[in-house]
Each structure stands twice: as C-alpha cells, then as structure tokens.
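#random but structural
TW: two for the price of one
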Amino acid sequence: MSGRRTALTVLAAAASAAAAAGVWGIGIERHLYTLRARTVHVLEPGSRPIRALHISDPHLAPWQKRRAAWISRLAALRPDLVISTGDNMGHPDALPAVRAALGPFAGTPGVFVHGSNDLWAPKPRNPLKYLAGPSRHHPTTAALDTEALDAFLRDDLGWTPLDNTAAVVSVAGRDIRFMGTNDAHHQLEDLESAHRALIDLPDASLTLGVTHAPYRHVLDAFIADGADALFAGHTHGGQVRLPGYGALVANCDLPAKQTRGLSTWSHGGRTVPLHVSAGLGHSIYAPVRFACRPEATLVTLAPRR
C-alpha cells in the first residue's frame, strides 16, 4: 500500500510540475520580451562602431498588440541598421500588426529576407511533432500577401530585400555588402544567384551574410564568399529549453547548442561570428516558450582588437 501511495505522490508531483510549466510557458514567459546586447569585432581598427538591431520571427497576428507595441518601441534605440531575418506574419490578416510594429523604423537602413511565414500561413499541427525533427511545408497552406509585405518593407521603410541576392547598403556613412537567401528550410535558397550578385558588387571592407534558416550549407557558402559575420533566425532558440541543458531541437541541421545567441561558424579555414536570434514569437498553434524568452538583439559591430 505504501508503494502505491508513493507512486501516486510521484505522479501527482509530476502532474503539478507539468501544469506549472505549462502555465508559465503559455501564460507568462512568451510575453516576457527581452532586449539582448552583443558585440562582434569585425570592423577595421579605428572604425566607428555600428549598432545593428537584429529582429526575427515575430509571427504577428492581428490580436498581438502587446508584441507589436514592444517591437515598435525598439525604434527609440535609434540603431544604425536593422537586420530582419523573416517570419514576420503569423496570420493571413497580420499586415496591419506588422505595420504597427515596424513602421517607426522608416528611414533607418535595413535589410530583410523571407521565412516561410512571410509566404504561407501557419497550419494546425501537433506541437509535439516539433520535437521529432525539422518541420515540413504543407502545400495546402494558404498563401500570404507577400507582395504587400514586401512593398511595406521595401518602399515604406526603405529596407533592402536580400532573398537570393546581394546588395550594398550605406550604413552610418560606410558601405556594407550584404548577401542573403530565401528560406532554406523549404529549399527556397539559391546560393548561386546570391554568389553571382555578390561578385558583381564593388569591394567593401565588411560583408554580412543574412538568412532565415541557418542550415550548414548556407553558412558554409556565405563564409566561402567572404562574409565577415552571419545573421539568422528560424530556430526560436529551441522555443522549449531545459534549464541547465538547453535546446532540444534546432528545426534545422544547426547544432542545438547554437540555436540562439552569439557563437562562431568555421568553414574552409575561416571562422566568423554567427548570431542566431531566438526570435520574438511562435506559431499561433504552438503558443508557448519555456526557458527561452522572446528576444531582439542589439548587435554592436566593433573594430577588431
């Protein structure tokens, strides 16, 4: 009898812990928006630092006014550059929320790439499947108004699109070369087109690689093309992390330990900084974050030591 009582006690404790974790992850932590600060030393000695705000994965829906307002207030930081690594929309009617969130950045130099949730609306799925490995695209998912989104980002904000291409952007009085890809998670990347666009650009002292999903082959290609630092999103930092352990999954082939924050990536004898944003949101069908606060990051590009 005592053994049965012990088992019931253990089960009750486990159920209580799971319920508490659910309440925290669903009801509290996913709303605890956090601004991180990181520094990467990639500029020529003596250069003036550049403050780049990295925003990713807001997955906005019309009712998420708190998230949109928090993002909009980041404009008060007056960054020199905004890097958006995609998944802005999380609902077919999300464009007004995107406008409210990003409108205050009009006139600030910026670059952007697409994630799949700039192209297709999310679809209901079992959230536990996320733990089984990288998710897959469902061809029956409704198309989003990507054209209207791009018109806002490009024409209203003045940001430069980087899907499978390269461009020079003037930032804080200096020219920076950027190369980028569309979402590699759905095989939309075209690295050859990005490479050809890059080699047609004039030389610059700084080249940055920007992508949504940080697949290894994309990061390798960026480094091979001379990128000095890499920026990505997509992983949500794992979205559900175990304290003391970290992310369980990366939703791509990136090592799970690199699913958020600043690390490095090496290829062909070169090692460069890699910043992966844990992102600001989640699918409307998986409204939880645990031990992984939603975040944006102010990355200071500083002179090399």
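TW: number two ↓
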Amino acid sequence: MIVRRVFAFLIDAVIANLLSFIPVVGWLIGFFYMLLRDALTESGSPGKKVLNLQVTTVQGGRVTYVESIRRNIIFAIPTVFSIIPIVGTIISIILALIVYLVELLAMVSDPEGRRYGDRWADTVVREVITYFHLK
C-alpha cells in the first residue's frame, strides 16, 4: 500500500502544480488544494481515489477540513518559501525533499503505515475494497 500512497501523492502534487499555473492566484489555489485535498470528497483526494485508497479518522469516519489541514500542513510549509524568487524556490525544494523523506520513513516504520501527519490528525489511510457483481 505504501507504493500506492506515494503514487497517489504524486498525482495530487501534479494537480497542485498544474493549478499553480493559473495567473495571479494559481499558487494559492494549489497550496489550499494540497491542504484540503483529503476532505474534498468522501473518498478523499483524486490521487487516492484513482488508487483505491481513502483517508478516514482512526474510528472510520469521514475526514473533516480541519483534519485534512492537520494531516497535510507538513507538506504545505515548504511551498511557502517558493514565494521568494530563486532562493526561495531552492529552499522550498530542499525542505520538501526532507519532509517527504521523513514522512516516508515514518510511514514505513509505523505498524499501521501512519506518517506524522496521520498521527497529528488522528487519521489513517485504508484500502477501498470494491465488489463487482456479475449477472
């Protein structure tokens, strides 16, 4: 499931980066997309939906916008530095790589696959099991 989570994140990151190309407000829209993505729909972010994953509370409930922000703020912080021309972009990339590595290591080392963002928000990523009925 870890590989699927990484690919789901990459899909969401591509969406956020594409949104950032919208003139004037694109960066802000992409930033808020990354913060709120897990609460946008019942099934979570588009990346998770494509890979049959879902973020829920530990108790199994739907994730709220506040929980989505708590879970994703760690990924949003490095992007703030990209406002600063050139140097900020370099700082943003370095910080982002550090955050991604730390979160990946946390996810791999946790028995439930929870990263720090999941622990702060009291959430968990689950596989969505779908059944097909053939007639």
